[in-house]
Automatic annotation (TrEMBL):
The keyword Oxidoreductase applies. It comes from Kocuria coralli. Keywords: NAD, Oxidoreductase. One of its GO terms (molecular function) is nucleotide binding. This is Gfo/Idh/MocA family oxidoreductase.
Length: 430
């Protein structure tokens, strides 16, 4: 076990930090100080939330030690927490965790647990994260940071005062295709971004018989905008730099009521429903225009886009060309360069492999053409968090996860979009 006060949090990143891991040089690499001082170091791991995203975290901690060099201390997979006892027990058995619990406080009180991912309803984040930090746990929280801006700011304050590390997972920053585009922007291959276009269409809410859940409750702006718009928003700054203002905010609810479930609802799946309905109070659709220092961008999200289960699409148009990423082909990006031969130039497909961020030495088959997807991003994220907790210096680590302050910043943008939408699309300066 690693005591909470033995790991010093790194300075908060800017949101546009290094997008790709360093290459490990076995000839010059030296073991981190903490691993030399302690002969039997272990990190105890727990995850609160056994739904779809929770399982992504749970599996990621299993994969994390196999990525890159074996520099992590031993991991002990201690507990899965979920209010659904049957789901928690089945998930713990599936992924080889020692036990499951139905009360997160049991995880907070367990001295053998060091690291905890929080992957539950946004409205529960503050209470649970507060308790975990007070217990000295290192916390990796899913996005968005909370359900309200006030709660998110309180979480950031608690993180600043904590002796342990608190981070938020902005997983798509670790998508190799998007990290490659960021690298091409930085190294001049593409150069300065002139125009950004982002779209995240999902269909998890397209069926009117889909059961009511926490995702459909809350104020306007807490629906599709918070759920998938948070991803699209932090990625826009990852590629374009800081956002300065938003305008043209639009929020809409297409399915205005949903049937109440007869039992537990897990993830986005359908379930048996009753004849009783509850109003949907937040947004199925959202869009806005963003102003960055050097460019403009448009962002659009939906959870009712039938036929598009997970369609994240991003294009950047730059001074030296353009590039696009599509989540349905995540191991490829499309690249256009102005300096191609006139009359023969156009977009080319780049198959991502060992020449691109995160791949070399990380994946078992680290060559182009093999393919990978969204799950690997969670593994890279878990690896980075464990490296920070273990005290491995940044030179020999993946880029650190985002701070809670960055999570607050992301929510401030989403709040500005909701404010714009509530006032006929007015411009809101950040």
């Amino acid at each position: 076990m690693i005591p909470a006060d033995s790991a010093t949090p790194a300075p908060a990143s800017t949101g546009v930090d290094s997008a790709f891991p360093p290459c490990f040089d076995r000839a010059t690499w030296s073991a981190p100080r903490k691993l030399i001082e302690e002969d039997h170091v272990t990190i105890g791991v727990a995850v609160i939330g056994a739904g779809m995203a929770g399982k992504a975290h749970i599996a990621a901690y299993r994969v994390a030690p196999t990525l890159y060099e074996s520099t992590l201390p031993d991991l002990r997979y201690v507990a899965i927490g979920d209010i659904n006892a049957e789901l928690g027990a089945a998930t713990a058995k599936r992924y080889g965790y020692e036990r499951s619990v139905t009360d997160w406080r049991e995880i907070a009180e367990d001295p053998s647990i060091d690291v905890v991912s929080v992957v539950i309803a946004n409205s529960l984040h503050l209470e649970v994260v507060k308790g975990l930090l007070e217990a000295g746990k290192h916390v990796l929280c899913e996005k968005p940071l909370s359900d309200t801006l006030e709660s998110a700011r309180e979480m950031a304050r608690l993180a600043d005062e904590a002796s342990s590390i608190a981070r938020i997972g902005l997983t798509f920053r670790r998508q190799p295709g998007l990290a490659a585009i960021r690298q091409w922007i930085d190294d001049g291959t593409l150069g300065k971004v002139l125009h950004y276009s982002g779209r995240y269409w999902c269909d998890y809410g397209c069926n009117p018989q889909g059961p009511m859940s926490w995702r459909y409750r809350g104020p306007m702006g807490s629906g599709a905008l918070a759920d998938v718009g948070s991803h699209l928003t932090y990625l826009s700054e990852f590629l374009c730099g800081d956002m300065r203002s938003v305008a043209g905010g639009t929020l809409g609810t297409a399915i205005t009521e949903r049937p109440l479930p007869l039992g537990a609802v897990v993830g986005h799946g359908l379930a048996a429903v009753s004849d009783d309905y509850e109003p949907v109070t937040n947004d199925d659709y959202a869009s806005y225009t963003a102003q960055f220092d050097d460019c403009m961008g448009t962002l659009e999200v939906s959870r009712v886009a039938a036929g598009y289960p997970n369609a994240l699409n991003i294009e950047v148009f730059c001074e030296n060309g353009a590039a696009s990423f599509h989540q349905d082909t995540p191991s490829q990006v499309r690249l256009y360069r102005h300096d191609d031969m006139p009359g023969k130039n156009g977009y080319r497909t780049v198959n991502l492999g060992s020449d691109h961020p995160y791949i070399a030495g990380g994946l078992p088959m680290d060559v182009s053409g093999v393919g990978f997807g969204q799950n690997e991003g969670f593994a890279f994220q878990a690896r980075a968090f464990l490296e920070e907790v273990a005290g491995i210096d940044e030179e020999h680590s993946l880029p650190r996860n985002a701070s809670f302050d960055e999570g607050v910043h992301n929510m401030e943008i989403l709040a500005a979009v909701a404010e714009s939408a509530a006032d006929e699309g007015k411009k809101v300066t950040l």
